[in-house]
Amino acid sequence: MVAMKTSCSLLLVDLIVWFLLLGNVLSNEYTTFKKLVLPPSVTGPESAVFDRGGEGPYVAVADGRILKWQGPTTGFLDFAFTSPNRTKKLCDGTNDLKLGAICGRPVALSFNYKTSDLYITDAFFGLLVVGFNGGLATQLSGGYKYFSGIDVESYTGNVYMTDASLTYGIRDMTKPGFKPDSTGRLLKYDPRTQRVTVLLTGLSGVGGPSVSSDRKYVLVPEYMNNQIQRHWLQGPKKDTNEVFLTDCGSPKNIKRAANDGEFWVAVEKQVQESPMLSEPHGLRVNGSATVLQTVPLPQFLNMAHNVVQESNDALYVGSSHSDFVGVYTN
Ligand SMILES: *[C@@H]1O[C@H](CO)[C@@H](O)[C@H](O)[C@H]1NC(C)=O
Ligand SMILES: *[C@@H]1O[C@H](CO)[C@@H](O)[C@H](O)[C@H]1NC(C)=O
C-alpha cells in the first residue's frame, strides 16, 4: 500500500518535471542549462557571487567553506572559511548542523567592489569579512541567532544584512513542526563606525535583501508573508517602509540584475495540481514593481532557498539543497 503510494507520487513528479521542461523550451528564454558541480558530498550553495574582475562564482556551502569556481577542468577550490576552529578533516563534506559551531555555515556573500573585500553572513558567526586572498574571515559582528541574507552597497561601503529571527537558529529549522516567527530584522553595518543599526523589524521569513543601483532603497523579501518590502534609504520617504510587491509567490532572495534599476527575485510558487510541490522561478522586476520576465527553474523543483544571480547574460542559481550551481543561458 505504502509502496504503491510512493511510486504514484513519483510518477506525478516526473510528469510535472517533463511538463515544466517542455513549457520552458517552447516559450521562454534561458532554456540552456548546465551544472557547475560541487566537490564530492558538498551541498547547499545558497549564494553565487562574482568579483570585480568577473571571476567566480564564489559560493558559500554547508560544510563551512567558501569555494571559488576555477573553470571546468579544475572545478571549485577552497577560497575562505568563517570559523577559527574549523579543520578540513572534521568538516569538509559535512552537512551536519551540529558541527556548525566548529565548522561554520556561511550563508550569503557580497563583494565590496571598491575594496574587493568579500562580506559574509554566517548562521553561527554573524557578519564577517575576508580580503581578496581569502583564508580565515574576520568577524565584524556576532551574537545573533541566524544571519541570513546580505548586500554590500559599494559606494558608501554600508552592509545590509537580514537576521532571520530573534528566537530561532538554523538548527531549529530542521526540527519537526518548525514554523518561522515574525521577529526577523533588516540591519545595517557601517564600516566607518563599525556599528550595527536596526532598520526594519517584525519580518516573517526574511531572505536576502538588495540595494537598488541608485542606492535610494533596499528591497527585503519575506517568504512567509509572500511579499517584498521596500525600505527607503534616501529621498522624501527616507527611513520609511512600504509594501513593494505581493502575489508573486514566496520570495527567497533578491539580487540586482544587469540592467540598472532591475532585480532578479528567486520565488517559489505552489504547483496548482499538486500543492505539496513548489516550483522555483526567477522574476525580473523593475523599480515600479513590474514583473518584466518570469523564468522557470525546473532543475530546482522542491529545493528551498534559491538565489538567482545574473552575470554575463547567464543566470546562476544556487540552492540550500543542491550539490551544484545551475547556469541558465539563452
Ligand atoms: C575554539 O576552540 C577553543 C578551544 O576549545 C575554544 O576556547 C573557543 O571558544 C573556540 N572558538 C570558537 C569561535 O568556537
Ligand atoms: C517598469 O516597467 C513598466 C512596464 O514596462 C514601465 O511602465 C515602468 O515605467 C517601469 N518602471 C521603471 C522605474 O523603470
TrEMBL record:
Signal peptide: 1-27
Protein name: Strictosidine synthase conserved region domain-containing protein
Native species: Lactuca saligna
PANTHER family: PROTEIN STRICTOSIDINE SYNTHASE-LIKE 9-LIKE (PTHR10426:SF136), STRICTOSIDINE SYNTHASE-RELATED (PTHR10426)
Keywords (A to Z) from UniProt: Glycoprotein, Signal, Vacuole
Transmembrane segments: none
Localization annotation: Vacuole
Entry GO MF terms: hydrolase activity
Principal location listed in the UniProt entry: other
Family under the similarity heading: Belongs to the strictosidine synthase family.
Limits of the Strictosidine synthase conserved region domain: 149-235
